[in-house]
Structure formats: structure tokens, C-alpha cells
């Protein structure tokens, strides 16, 4: 039994690690990569998605998507974290392939309709592509098997503002639509990903196990972990996006709860994910008016990292 997924991504160094997992895990069937701006601009995101598949010697369809947020102005890409090229400014081989002519949203809608009930969408960047797919064909909410989102924060606080996680902050209007669309959804946010630290020794094992792809992962990791050391005092990095796949394949390593999410779209708290646990009464019903979803509250960090390294070595 394999798990068919479409991986929506803004690669990005931790995205690249997760894409590698999706490419090599024997029980994951990677139907396609859909790209969005976020860690990098959209053209760079698409080039990196093509390149990573080529380094793994696989031909994976890549569909290009959102170049900017739905409503708010776009912030500059965080080159100090991911490098100007999204992969730590290391020298990269030439990309051979080309993106599909269909957009990310069209690709998502077409694939989900072709295999109703089968496909899991895993999204690890700003959520414009999923929002556009919902607008194109609202019926996909009843046809996806599952939606797994890396983003948001329940009790952990934010990483780009005191309350907002980067993917939610980058396009809060898209996030608000996607998280409240009424499909089977799990949010894997900072409460889980901050429990996981990929150490330099872990990356050595991955580099040894993945050939040319492993070298790109290891070299870009060096740039990313410099940021973690300098700004956060951590020797290693949080493999945020890989945690979404870890949850999908090993949900036993995570603590979850059900409830209702509201995404703040404007003002000081823009991008904050507000969680109202199921069954808990509040002052009025508006916090619990959105559809029920699942959120991660914690993860067994060391075991998640062990899973990542095992898959990639
Ligand atoms: Ca990402």
C-alpha cells in the first residue's frame, strides 16, 4: 500500500529535505510538486523543485503556482535564511526539465478529480495554491483523502512575529480559506516542529545516503544551520517541512487535538492561528464556528528526527 500525495512547496532548504523524503520513501507515491513563492520567488521555487527531482533521477510533474499573496503585499524572500537561490547559495547544476503548462491549482484539481478519495495534499508553504484550487473547484473538499499543512502555531508562539508562523503570515487570507474549508485537515505547526532538531551528525548520514541529492541537502544545510546558530543558539536546524510527512507516515509520534481554527488576517496579529478546542465553551460561539480540524500539540522530536534520517540514509 502506498500513499499518493501532491506536495505543495516553496523550496527552500527544509522544503528540499522534505522533497527528498517524498522522492525516496518507498510507501509514498509522489504524484507531483506544486510550487509557490515564499522562501524564494516563484521561478526559483519551480527551478528548485525540478532540480531536486532530477538529482534523485526521477521525473516528477512540477506545476507552478502562486507568485504573490492573495491580498496583502509580498514581503521580500528571506535570503538570510535560505540563500538567494533557496538552497543556501551553493552552486547548483543546470535544470534540465520544464514545468507543466497547467497551473498548480489546475493540476491539483485535475489530479484530485481523477482519483477521488485517494490523494493527500501536503502543503508546506504559503497556501495560495490550495486556496486557488478551492476556488476553481470547491467540490475537491469532499474528494481529497486528507490535507496536511506545515504551518501555524497553537501554544508555541510565532517565528516571524511574536504570534505568527511564516507560512500563515505570508498569506493569511489564503490560510484562512484553506484551514476553514471543511476538509479532513491536520495542522503540523511549530508546537511539533520546534521539538525536532536535525544535527550536523544526522546530516552527515543523509549526505552519505543520497548521492548527488544528499550533497545538495548537506551543503545547503550548512547555510541554514548557520542561521539557527547565530539567531537561535541551536546546533542544528528544525526540519519543519519534513514533519508534515513524518506526521502522515508516523502519526504515532505526535500528540494531536481536535478543534476549530481561526486565522487572523489583518492587524498586529496577522497570520496567528487561534485554536478553540472541541467541546470547550467560550464567551460566544464565533471561535468555534469553523469546521473541526486536527492540530499537533507536541511531537517526540528525537524519534521524528530518527525517522527522517532513517528514510534518507
Ligand atoms: Ca516551506
What can you see in these coordinates?
- Helix 5 crosses helix 7.
- The chain contains 12 helices and 9 strands.
- Helix 1 links the parallel strand 1 (3-9) and strand 2 (28-35).
- The longest helix has 22 residues, at 211-232.
- The mean pLDDT is 96.
- It has one domain (3-312): Inosine-uridine Nucleoside N-ribohydrolase, Chain A (Alpha-Beta Complex), CATH 3.90.245.10.
- The protein has a 9-stranded mixed β-sheet with strand order 3-2-1-4-5-6-9-7-8, with helices on both faces.
- By secondary structure, the protein is an alpha/beta fold.
- The structure holds calcium ion.
- The site of calcium ion (CA) has 9 residues, from loops.
Short key terms for the protein model shown above:
single chain; 313 residues; alpha/beta; nine-stranded mixed beta sheet; binds calcium ion; IUNH; Inosine-uridine nucleoside N-ribohydrolase
Amino acid at each position: 500500500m502506498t500513499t499518493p500525495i501532491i506536495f505543495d512547496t516553496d523550496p527552500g532548504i527544509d522544503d528540499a529535505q522534505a522533497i527528498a523524503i517524498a522522492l525516496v520513501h518507498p510507501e509514498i507515491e509522489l504524484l507531483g510538486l506544486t510550487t509557490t513563492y515564499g522562501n524564494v520567488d516563484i521561478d526559483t521555487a519551480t527551478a528548485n523543485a525540478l532540480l531536486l527531482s532530477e538529482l534523485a533521477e526521477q521525473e516528477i510533474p512540477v506545476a507552478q503556482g502562486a507568485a504573490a499573496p492573495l491580498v496583502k503585499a509580498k514581503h521580500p524572500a528571506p535570503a538570510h535564511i535560505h540563500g538567494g537561490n533557496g538552497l543556501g547559495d551553493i552552486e547548483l547544476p543546470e535544470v534540465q526539465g520544464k514545468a507543466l503548462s497547467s497551473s498548480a491549482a489546475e493540476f491539483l484539481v485535475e489530479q484530485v478529480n481523477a482519483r477521488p478519495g485517494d490523494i493527500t495534499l501536503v502543503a508546506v508553504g504559503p497556501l495560495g495554491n490550495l486556496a486557488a484550487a478551492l476556488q476553481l473547484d470547491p467540490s475537491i473538499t469532499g474528494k481529497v483523502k486528507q490535507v496536511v499543512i506545515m504551518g501555524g502555531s497553537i501554544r508555541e508562539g510565532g517565528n516571524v512575529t511574536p504570534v505568527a508562523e511564516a507560512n500563515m503570515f505570508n498569506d493569511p487570507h489564503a490560510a484562512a480559506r484553506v484551514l476553514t474549508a471543511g476538509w479532513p485537515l491536520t495542522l503540523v505547526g511549530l508546537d511539533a516542529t520546534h521539538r525536532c532538531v536535525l544535527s550536523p551528525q544526522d546530516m552527515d548520514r543523509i549526505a552519505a545516503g543520497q548521492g548527488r541529492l544528499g550533497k545538495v541537502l548537506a551543503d545547503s544545510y550548512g547555510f541554514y544551520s548557520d542561521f539557527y546558530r547565530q539567531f537561535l543558539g541551536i546546533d542544528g536546524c528544525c526540519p519543519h517541512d519534513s514533519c508534515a510527512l513524518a506526521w502522515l507516515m508516523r502519526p504515532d509520534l505526535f500528540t494531536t487535538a481536535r478543534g476549530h481554527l481561526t486565522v487572523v488576517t489583518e492587524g498586529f496579529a496577522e497570520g496567528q492561528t487561534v485554536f478553540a478546542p472541541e467541546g470547550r465553551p467560550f464567551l460566544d460561539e464565533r471561535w468555534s464556528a469553523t469546521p473541526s480540524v486536527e492540530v499537533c500539540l507536541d511531537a517526540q522530536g528525537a524519534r521524528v528526527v530518527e525517522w527522517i534520517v532513517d528514510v534518507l540514509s
